[in-house]
Amino acid sequence: MTRTRPRHPFRTAALAGTAVLAAAALTACSGGSGTAKADGKDTRPGTRISVNLSGKQAKAGRPVKVTLAEGRLQQVTVTDSKGATLHGTVSADGRTWTSARKAAPGTGYTVEARSTDGGTAKADFATAAPGKVNKLTLAPGKNTTVGIAHPLSIVFDHPVKNRAEVERQLKVTTSNNTVGSWGWMEDWSGKDRVDWRPKEYWKPGTKVTLQAELNGIDSGEGGWFVRDYTTNVTIGKNQLVKVDLDNHRLKLVRDGQEVKDIPMSGGTPGGDKASWRGKTVLMSKEGTINMRSETVGLGDAYDKMVDYSMRLTWSGMYAHAAPWNARYMGNANKSSGCLGMDTPDARWVYDQVQVGDPFEVEGGDAKGTQALNNGYGEWNLSWTDWQAKSALR
Fold first, then answer.
1. Residue 79 and residue 362: Cα distance in Å, rounded?
2. Alpha carbon distance 230, 362 (integer Å)
3. What residues pair up with 121 in beta bridges, in sequence order?
4. How far, in Å, CA of 271 to CA of 286, rounded?
5. Integer Cα distance of 85 and 104 in angstroms
6. Alpha carbons 383 and 199: distance in angstroms, whole number
């Protein structure tokens, strides 16, 4: 069997800003595949493609677009230097393929295209390295179990100017189609932060996955994201803690039933030592820690080792054992802002609660409602007001 030469020499069209390559069309008798030369020229008949990104310093943050000169595309594969694949779709007319994700900075890519008549073509390009990289911290941590009030929370290392673009890449899926929304704020640390809060407390047993598909997204002045992030969370027991500052009581409620009613003493009313009211969330169980008054702006009032410490706010409001205040438990608020209990009661509460449990604090003996960013204060906003904090509203 012989091969016939084409009547006309093969030509490539020069397209501004694109890479144009060709490869020999496969025939039943060829037994192999041709590949384009580096300069995009080949003397054999072939499949011609153009790629919107080319060279070694292509601009990141754009989808990869592959265009076929003639015929219809059957398949396009775009693989990065780490072996990951950019998925995409072919247009209705079969002429173009566009990636769903954007090209990431500082990454090499290989494009391989096949037409419906069996022709193939290949191209390579690399994107410019990022001038600045943005990273983030996720809470809760991966594969954790938390209480019914814990939001999904992301704190960014650097400012996020392109909030809407970033928010579009944050995918939340749940086992029961939980309704929720993202909300942006300045974290207590001063960094940009975005939380995803359900409309109502989570249902116990809900499985939650957060996929932050950020690789290739420009955060703005804070720089580029260069990787994706994922965290999986399970919602634990259906329980909450009700705190009545005026009557000096703390109650654990599980599945709608009161489990235990405990006397306690809240913050001294009328000044900076008063407690915060509102729906707060147990942020961490920290055990025995050193509490010093100067760290919360109260001078040299105290310096104590405190047992069974449960953090409720970044500003230093805890629930904990306070045996030195035993005479006030159940009858007066005389602490420096925390919710104090006798040691046996504090131990019991500490053993029962989960990180993410809501502490619903009510009463007039308070210095106001916990701020949005002072821990997880989003439950103090109406659903409408919380939705308004999304960059996509």
1. 56
2. 36
3. 113
4. 26
5. 12
6. 6
DSSP 294: G
Give the architecture (CATH level 2) of 19-126: Sandwich (2.60)
Q: What contacts 338, CB < 8 A, 6 or more positions away?
A: 266, 267, 275, 316, 317, 318, 319, 320, 322
pLDDT in tens, 206-238: 999 999 999 999 999 899 999 999 999 999 999
Give pLDDT tens digits for 244-261. 999 999 999 999 999 999
Q: What are phi and psi of 299, to 5 degrees?
A: 65, -140
152 has which bridge partners? 196
| CATH superfamily assigned to domain 239-377 | L,D-transpeptidase catalytic domain-like (2.40.440.10)
Class of the CATH domain delimited by 136-236: mainly beta
d(CA 48, CA 367): 71
Nearest Cα to Cα of residue 263 among 328, 324, 340, 330: 330
What is the number of alpha carbons within 13 Å of residue 377 lying toward its C-beta? 21
Among the listed residues 93, 117, 123, 97, the one whose alpha carbon sits nearest the alpha carbon of residue 45:
117
Q: Where are the domains of the chain?
A: 19-126, 136-236, 239-377
